[in-house]
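Re: beginner question about structure tokens

> Can someone show what the tokenized structure looks like for a real chain? I only ever see the sequence side.

Sure, here's an example I had lying around. Input first:
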Amino acid sequence: MLKPVSRLLIAASAVAPLAAGAFSPEDHLAWLKANQEAQPQFVDGDVITYDKADLIRPFIPAEQQSELIFEGMEMTIKDAGDLSPPQSYLTATEKFAGQPTLASDGAIENYTAGRPFDPTAFTAGSKEDGWKMVWNWMYRWQNDGLRSEEVHWVWVRRGGNHDGHEVMSSNGGRYQKYYTGGGSFERALAGPYQRVLMSGRADLPESNYKMNNGEGFAKNTNFREYTGFNSPFDIAGTAFLILRYDDPRKADDSWAYIPSLRRVRRISVEVKSDSLLGTDHTLEDFYGFNGRPMEHEWEYIGTARILAVARSRHTDTIYYGPSGWAPLDDWALREVDVMRMYPQRDTHPYSTKFIYVDRQSGESFYANAFDKSGELWKIWQIQKSWTEDEEYADHRGEFKGGETPAGARVVAFQSINVIDLQNNRGTLVPTRGVSYPDTEMSKVKRTLDVNYLTEGR
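And the corresponding structure tokens:
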């Protein structure tokens, strides 16, 4: 039986969507405490419908419940099984255990490959362990990095329907099967994405755990990341390139190509935390957190168990529900570590952000952010698939994704959906044609160089 604090939070969140200003970081921490005390009352194979929703409320963050629990809901409980990274990552973790350290400012030092720090030794409320947690996040297993042939950014307003929107008829109606349910579509953007990891490569012990032995194009580089847009017409050709350095104290080099200006411009750190082309996302929000750890302070909050789409039964996310924001899929109960971000830059839009990271795979399933006044602003739900499943192999089909090598064992990015509770709008960001391909330096030079931004894809 749930304890009184759990029942209290369940009752408070069961009625209607939360008003943004009515939910504070302290409220979220209270839900987390209740979650840690709750015991699941469901088993593998259960299908949770609206009349049984109280069974799952302790395992869905309170501020997310109204978006996932509704009349007509259908949530299948299915254990995700073993989602551990490949042996190369486990071997590197063991080999270099105890070597990584933290400097007085939180920067990681003496890191080579694998998971830097052991989360089983972390203490709730520790700032030091918060830093260790974020470095674990930064060096999670991702094979060579994510590639998506099409990232679809769809702005969805609560209520209404999108039957008549051009998205539903474009490309021969290929998107109709993904966007079921309600919600009014306002705009849709699309384009490719690729990240290539160049250091901390557990799979490359023969080259000093670095791509190209850390020389040439990969020198002093952690990763390069390209985000492009080829539609709609008014932004086609817009592209962003981020270069993250091995030195944790060194700021990113970042560039943008804006077709109307016909030139490549360097972008500041502020741009990466601004709304991306009018969406509810920022470049820093991708994956759950995609910024530089050193621009923030960190705290380890503790562990939780949450329901998440950790091993999707679909090739690509299928949305349903009154506003078309909920994933129709299998949901697994996962143990996660919770870290809290405190931005240090006065101009950063958030006052704090909570990020939930899977203990086994290192990937994030959920995040939320609060504005400068401490009011709830945005919530993220992040869906994953598993590279070893047959469904994942289908990514090479309709959207012509690349080939992920067998045994990559990546909890693969499928979609990240943000709901801005203050403007009552969401941005769905499914990635299609996804792969974690083995990359060649010659191809990386042609596609992830600043000079390529003006050429498009």
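Each token stands for a local structural state, so reading them left to right follows the chain. The CA atoms of residues 243 and 253 lie 5 Å apart.
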